[in-house]
Amino acid sequence: MGNIHSKERILSGMRPTGEMHLGNYVGALESWVALQEQYENFHLIADYHALTTDLDTSKILDNTIEMIIDWLSVGIDPERSPIFRQSQIKEHSELHLIFSMLITTARLERNPTLKEQIKDLKIANMVYGHLGYPVLQAADILLYKGNLVPVGEDQAPHVEITREIARKFNSVYGEVFPIPRTKLTSFSRLPGLDRNKMSKSLGNTILLSDSEMEVKGKVMKAITDPQKIRRGAPGRPDICLIYTYQKKFNNKETKDIYSGCTSGALGCVDCKMKCSEAISKKIEPFREKRKHFEKNRNEVIDILEDGEKRANVVAKKTMAEVHEAMQLG
Ligand code: TRP
Question: How do residues 7-26 score in pLDDT, each as one tens digit?
Answer without folding.
Answer: 999 999 999 999 999 999 99
